[in-house]
Amino acid sequence: MLKIPNTKYLKNKKKHSSKIYLKQLIMEREVIFNSDLHFEHKQWRRELLFWEDELKSLRNRLDELAIRWTDKEVLAQLEHYQNQFIIQENAINELDNHINLHETNIAEHTKKGEDVLNQQLVKDHIEFRNHMDTQRNLYSDLKKEFFRFLSEYM
User: Fold this and answer.
1) 18 and 8, same structural domain?
2) C-alpha separations of 65 from 51, 57, 115, 119, 153 in Å
3) Residue 9 sits in the same domain as residue 57
4) In the chain, what is the greatest distance between 2 CA atoms, to the nearest angstrom?
5) Which range marks the domain in which residue 23 is found?
6) Which member of 10, 52, 90, 119 lies 3.0 to 4.6 Å from 18 by CB, making a disulfide possible if both were Cys?
7) How far apart are the C-alpha atoms of 142 and 154, rounded to whole Å?
């Protein structure tokens, strides 16, 4: 159950202060259930699995280019992308581990019969959501950069 104030009031406030006001109101009034967080975790896991699968395809493209090119500059760029893909893979593993920890915490609350989480856990979840958004943008930018590289050297 989510209680959000009238947004017409918020539009009259300054943009920055309205975001802070909205966040404070939500944190004070919102009731968040374990099932809500679990649903979002499942969404994120599917996204992480997709990224893992996509990275395999991108690595295959790297291998194809490594066979075709002997130019040191091109090979250096291939190494750069290989390193970036490893960094992304590590980030995916860290994100998945964080989700697993949070799921364990949710399970502990459920065993105790507590369906509603405390504000700190919800705050941590919101911070993790922001981290997922950041990682999503970084990954997207890397893919765009790599596809530009592919279009030049494939």
Assistant:
1) yes
2) 21, 13, 52, 50, 8
3) no
4) 63
5) 1-31
6) 10
7) 17
